[in-house]
Amino acid sequence: MVTFASEEGEPDVLNTVQVAPLVHLNRAHAVIYSCAILGLLYNRAHSLLRSPDHLSFALFLTITVADLVFAFMWALAQAFRWRPVRRQEEGWPGLDVFICTADPYKEPPMSVANTALSAMAFDYPTDRLSVYISDDGGSPLTLFAFMEAARFARYWLPFCREQGRVERCPEAYFRSGAGSGGHCEKIKIMYQRMKERVEKTVERGCVDPGCITCEEEREIFEKWNSGFSRQEHPPIIQVLADSSKDLDISDSPLPNLIYVSRGKSRASPHHFKAGALNALIRVSSIMTNGAVILTLDCDMYSNDPKAPQRALCYLLDSEMSYKLAYVQFPQRFRGINSHDTYGGPYYLGSACFFSRACFREASSPPSPAASLSAGRLPGDSISSETVIGKAHLVTGCDYERGTSWGSTTGIRYGSLSEDHNSGYHMLCRGWESVFCDPEPPAFLGDVPITLNDVLIQNKRWSLGLLQVGFSRYSPVIFGCRWAPLPMAMCYARYAFWPIWCIPVSIYAALPQVALVYQVPLFPKASDAWFYLYAYLFLTAYAQDLIDFLGARGTVRSWWNDQRMWMIRAVTSNLFGVFQFSLQKMGFSGSGFNVTSKLMDDEQVKRYDGGFFDFGAESPFFVSLGTIAVINLVSLAVGLGRSLSGGSLQDMFLQVLLSGFVVVNCWPIYEASVLRADKGRMPVTVIRSSLFLAGVVFCAAYFTFSTV
Ligand SMILES: O=c1ccn([C@@H]2O[C@H](COP(=O)(O)OP(=O)(O)O[C@H]3O[C@H](CO)[C@@H](O)[C@H](O)[C@H]3O)[C@@H](O)[C@H]2O)c(=O)[nH]1
Ligand SMILES: [Mn+2]
């Protein structure tokens, strides 16, 4: 039998056994009835013994035999009545889908609604499926988009079932040009009208009273009164579709759709996405308590309606389900340009199916479960006042104060890379996980398409990972002790990933500057040691290339990837390490900068053309520009001096290194000098880079001239 542990600590079985309600009456009746039978037999025996003649004895004997057989059969029948049960197969564990959004202007509500619609259209029994949306932006615009989505879902879900296509995200469906015919046209027009209404509303910045269809909706929007701000507001929870009563146009129940904007206050930390997920874990445990939880970022959508079934293949496997915390699908991205200019991210944190059990307090696979909170009572609907009341309670801004949420319960706090951190801690407690990578991809997401956005995202990861690496639970100490060693090493490699910046930054400037002053830092070309250096460099690069090609990459995308590795090292990683140090010294805080999901047409064109987008006055670019200038100058001056002074042999590796960096920096020179589009390097950035490079050469002059 397959079981899931539920909130009350009892297994939430996939089949239920119910003892018939009349069982006690049956049993009482059996006792009385058997007494009556005994009485009857006594009476018969009495009659037999006192029968006056043979005939009546024979008659009584016969009837007594009949009665005995009756009694015997009756007695046997009691086995059927003693504990009659009614069994029912649940078949499907409840699935609660969590979608996070945080800002209606960086994360367009229409695309968040698309994510939700694609999940509502999973091939999954709709009465076992619930979609929760966490709105950290606390925005009526997002709620409005979801009200529209709930209405559209009534048409969309039957349409998807009928068409049987894998694209269930309306935007992706219509973009792919799929479907034809009058019915399809009608749905498409309906979708476009909804999109227009939502986008107009976002543009206007407030919900037009004309778009509100009933008194109930008006009341909801009144919650956004003058005292309401994004940082300071009470929780808002709204059931937009209730599968126990809302039907689609083909009379099938809709999945539950629930909007949650947790309470916020400047006085209590809200822990960003990790806090949002924990609030959803609590609300859902009260409302639907699904044994399986899927977390999705708002910039991802389902590309395979059978993804939940794939996950269940693992989560329901009796061999592993008791120790399995989650099944992670890869984050695959649509719209990555053909050469993957920015080295598409590898990171997880979305598209992950969890077993609810792993979020329980200090949970580990063999430990008896402590309870999270009481679930909903059987007859209560999710929109009932008691349920909504409880849900408000657990999403209040102070609810977590003094509890274990974020430390031993739920998603872990303390790192901006909450996914890396939480997965790592589950592993240390003995949970296991599975990576599921079907083809075609089960989920598709968006990537940032400007270099600055990529680097901002990277810097956040750098900070978040260092917060894990240098915590008292560091994978190199705590992890090596509590997790399998190879796993601890993998997590450590990620946790310390930002310190690439140390060697790369040194190699990006020091040998070059030394070249200018003709100070050799490597063995000369005729030296035997030279071959050791060449071997180390070449094989490291070759291995990387082979790994890359093995993972479906091309030579060109590998080249871009190694370039991005250098770029990240001297920008986002470096700035991340710097900010982390300031933080440790108490000079700086950290926040979760939501990655922008807006796509300006021109930016898309530049990105698709494979051009770097430098169109922002970003400090990252100053750092890059400085390196680019240093290398170009060093190569020119250094090579000249080496040739004229006859020291090329001595300086060979340094010349080669500057040359290699210069080749990698080509897009930077191009963007600074040759380009005229909006993605060119801003003049202020060029000026600052030249100035900083000048400072470096001055410092070098004073250092090397004393050598
Ligand atoms: O205060 C916040 C901040 C963010 N989010 C949500 O978190 C998700 C991820 O944010 P995004 O800006 O898209 O970050 P990415 O850099 O794209 O996210 C990657 O990195 C994060 C960790 O840094 C992981 O959580 C993500 O799953 C992973 O895709 C989005 O749905 C946001 O709406 C919140 O709910 N509340
Ligand atoms: Mn994202």
From TrEMBL:
**Positions of Mn(2+) binding:** 273, 297
The membrane-spanning stretches of this chain are 57-77, 491-510, 530-551, 620-639, 651-669, 681-704
Q: Where is the active site?
A: 136, 419
Q: How does it sit in the membrane?
A: Multi-pass membrane protein
Superkingdom of origin: Eukaryota
Q: Which Gene3D superfamilies match?
A: Spore Coat Polysaccharide Biosynthesis Protein SpsA, Chain A (3.90.550.10)
Task: Please indicate if the UniProt record lists Metal-binding as a keyword.
Answer: no
GO cellular component, alphabetical, reads: endomembrane system; membrane
Q: Which amino acid positions bind UDP-alpha-D-glucose, per UniProt?
A: 106-107, 136
Subcellular location, record wording: Endomembrane system
One Pfam match, given by its short name, reads: Cellulose_synt
The residues forming a coiled coil are: none
Q: What Gene Ontology molecular function terms does this protein carry?
A: cellulose synthase (UDP-forming) activity
Task: Tell me the Gene Ontology biological-process terms attached to this UniProt entry.
Answer: cell wall organization; cellulose biosynthetic process; plant-type cell wall organization or biogenesis
Q: Which UniProt keywords apply?
A: Cell wall biogenesis/degradation, Glycosyltransferase, Membrane, Transferase, Transmembrane, Transmembrane helix
State the PANTHER family in the record. Answer: X-BOX TRANSCRIPTION FACTOR-RELATED
Would you tell me the protein name for this molecule?
A: Uncharacterized protein
The protein's organism comes out as Spirodela intermedia (Intermediate duckweed)
